[in-house]
Fold these 2 entries.
Entry 1:
Amino acid sequence: GAALQALDVTNCSLTDEAAEALLPLLASPRLTSVRVGGNSWSSRRLALMLQRCVGAKSLGLEGLGDGRFQPPCLPHIAAMTSLQELWLDGFTDDCAEAVLLQCSAGLTRVSLKGAMVTQLPPSMSRLTALQSLYIDDCRELYSLPVWLKDATSLTELSHSGSCRTCRSAAPAAEPFLARSPLYFIVPQSTSSAFWN
């Protein structure tokens, strides 16, 4: 376990019993990537797991943005000062905001794919190092915030399948296309109304 660098048990239908077996692995000093989403952890057990992996650079919590993600977990995310990538796929507005508030401004990649958000979490505006943002399939997302146009470090924005009211791609893409380099994945139907 001491040489383990990445652990991905996403969507493995694991319970608290399996979490006990994972605890020694999560304490590996070389562990930099942890993905534990999509499992049936209790909030208490998830907090114990997060406490063990404070040196992680990449954290995947896909599908855990419901009642299980409670305040006992948040201080352990705040302790992850090396965190650069965060996967919050399927999270709700409140849960995504609560987690992002705990993260340092040094996050470079955030995924909210399939999140049940109506807007991007306001705390994201402080992520000055953000390079990649994935908001694919956020069907409730109404618009993108104006501050995102000024996110100078952002080089990749993927939002296919998002936005309920969007019509044409060109106006929404303009602020990004004017910058180089940028990899921008435009949904089939967007409009200038996509920007707040």
Entry 2:
Amino acid sequence: CRPGPRPAIDPRFKEAPGSFTPVDRLPASPDCRWPRPPPDVAAHHRRMDDRTVNSALGAVIRRGGVAPTALLRQRGLDRATIEALVSTGRLRRLRKGWFSVAEASREVVDATRCGGALACVSALRQHGIWTVPTSTLHAVIPSGATAPGEMVSHRAEPGRPMDFCIEPIRDAIGRALRCLPFDEAVAAVDSALRLS
């Protein structure tokens, strides 16, 4: 974007040697647009490579339907694209720095919204391990976070990063052994062994 020709200087405002005319006194050339309008996020999304978007959303689905912003950025989505996906409903903002796809289960979404992740029997069910049916949600919560009253909250280990939305199988089994009645815990372990 180049400015147009330099205007004639009024003799009353003769510039000192080495000075310059302020930008706001220079007429813009016809092809110069300043200030530029804010970006149209919908148009940006249309220009975005669909393969990149689909690959990123597929990665979110494979990890349980919820992901932090860092994962989306690693998969090639910039801030404008993420905002476009939110505006079109392909992503939902759960809390600061965390998003979910529409296919995410309600349990995973609820655990993430309160700052935690699915744990214990709730995580085992998401991993395909049989547990005694229950409607109670179990979540691992970092210190300082508060879980809703109807949720069984397990405290996260100090210093461990909470960068997952579903607790890994090994951790979930260990937590279930401490949380469940003996026979239910044994049934869950047996199901995990059969699954592996």
